[in-house]
Design a protein that fits this description.
globular; alpha+beta; six-stranded antiparallel sheet; about 15% strand
């Protein structure tokens, strides 16, 4: 089977920059050029020059460069693509080629190679089922479509974050993309060699941890803003408190650490190698004849049964450590459910799940905020203004958390009732 890996170039200064770099890295090749123009739905447009390189000595792959534009909703988006189409036997050669391409100065992200599908993605109207290798009768679709779908999402989110001057909202978006990827890896882990699964799961976890500090300061700063608006009114809403000054200072340090932790191309190489591993994985013998939908039903059924039993494993809803473990499993289930379009689920179930998850998230944020502010106050024992603001912050959070805790049992009962009904009807 042939596979394609696409590297999307960012911020290129001129049209010939990409082509020059690729020609320098490739072995002697036959070159073919073609101009393409394609009109899509909603008056969207693809217009580009495609240059195909076919190595004189067969290495098991062909490489194409695409330079042009994509017009989506009357907005121009540059196309600077490197597409590598290869046979599974050529994984080693492709890996070497990727390392060379990503060692240069041009910044790349991994992206969906089908430009028509990518246009739909940019409009928010696409589905995993539209991917070129999607086949509901084959469980290999999980490796060739479901997991790559989330890898592309994470890759583009990394690109947005590491090329932006204002990354605050992008941190949250990237964390969500990484959670979806990690959940999908766990959902389909039985199809992967254990070492491959553990390696990629830990890499995604390291990235998420890297973003964690900045996110915690963002949550605390948001709480400060809510307190300021609630107590002082709109007329002084722009004033920044002493606590906020210190949180902003810490946030800046966390941001610097996060953005300096890895260059974009190093991350892109790790994601591209993840794609190579997935595309070259052979299904375990026990799953060769199993249809995709059957596997998805089995996994969801297993996850449902474990979810319903969570209160037996973590019975104390007042214990924040236990609630955090429940929250992680709820979040994993939600992202897993949303990542398999083969199984129907009602929006009412998703709303119920999200309500409980959001409440757990609020309680976890309160718990982390309390520890975070406590550590800051210890470092400034003589700062009276800061001590006062810190006490006000913790008191405001604690009152809301106590009210939230009382609603958890009812939210849980509502969710599990809907989950059981859905499980019986669909799994």
């Amino acid at each position: 089977m042939k596979h394609t890996i696409c590297l999307h170039g960012l911020g290129l200064k001129n049209k010939g920059q990409l082509l020059t770099m690729v020609q320098r890295l490739l072995p002697p090749s036959t070159v073919k050029n073609k101009i393409k123009e394609k009109y899509l739905a909603n008056d969207d447009l693809l217009k580009y020059k495609r240059t195909k390189f076919i190595p004189v000595n067969d290495l098991g792959y062909k490489l194409s460069c695409i330079s042009g534009v994509m017009v989506i909703s009357d907005t121009l988006h540059p196309l600077n693509e490197v597409l590598i189409r290869y046979e599974e036997e050529a994984v080693g050669e492709v890996r070497k080629l990727l390392q060379k391409l990503l060692a240069g100065k041009i910044k790349f992200v991994v992206d969906e190679p089908d430009l028509v599908l990518r246009a739909k993605q940019m409009r928010g109207r696409s589905s995993i089922k539209e991917m070129a290798l999607y086949d509901e009768d084959s469980l290999a679709t999980a490796l060739h479509c479901h997991l790559p779908w989330h890898i592309y999402g994470a890759g583009k989110a990394w690109g947005d974050l590491l090329t932006s001057t204002n990354e605050r909202n992008l941190v949250r978006q990237l964390r969500v993309k990484l959670r979806r990827l990690r959940s999908s890896l766990t959902f389909f882990k039985e199809l992967l060699p254990l070492t491959t699964f553990e390696q990629h799961k830990m890499q995604v976890k390291r990235w998420a941890n890297l973003l964690g500090d900045a996110r915690e300061y963002d949550v605390a700063l948001l709480t400060c803003m809510k307190i300021r608006h609630g107590q002082r009114g709109e007329e002084v809403a722009d004033e920044v408190s002493r606590l906020e000054e210190i949180l902003l200072e810490y946030r800046a340090k966390a941001s610097k650490k996060m953005l300096n932790a890895g260059k974009l191309n190093a991350i892109t190489l790790q994601l591209a190698e993840m794609l190579l591993d997935l595309q070259s994985t052979t299904l375990p013998e026990a799953y060769e004849e199993l249809r995709l939908k059957s596997f998805v039903r089995q996994r969801l059924n297993s996850w449902c049964n474990k979810l319903i039993l969570l209160p037996e494993k973590y019975p104390d809803f007042s214990d924040m450590e236990q609630l955090h473990k429940i929250r992680i499993k709820m979040k994993r289930f939600r992202y897993g459910l949303q990542g398999v379009p083969e199984i129907y689920f009602p929006t009412s179930l998703l709303r119920s799940l999200k309500s409980f998850q959001d409440m757990l998230g609020f309680l976890h944020d309160d718990y982390v905020n309390d520890m975070l502010i406590g550590e800051i106050l210890k470092q400034y024992p003589e700062d009276a203004a800061l001590q006062y603001e810190g006490a006000m912050f913790c008191g405001w959070e604690r009152a809301k958390a106590e009210a939230a805790l009382t609603s958890l049992p009812e939210l849980w009962d509502n969710f599990t009732a809907q989950l059981r009904e859905w499980q019986e009807e669909n799994l």
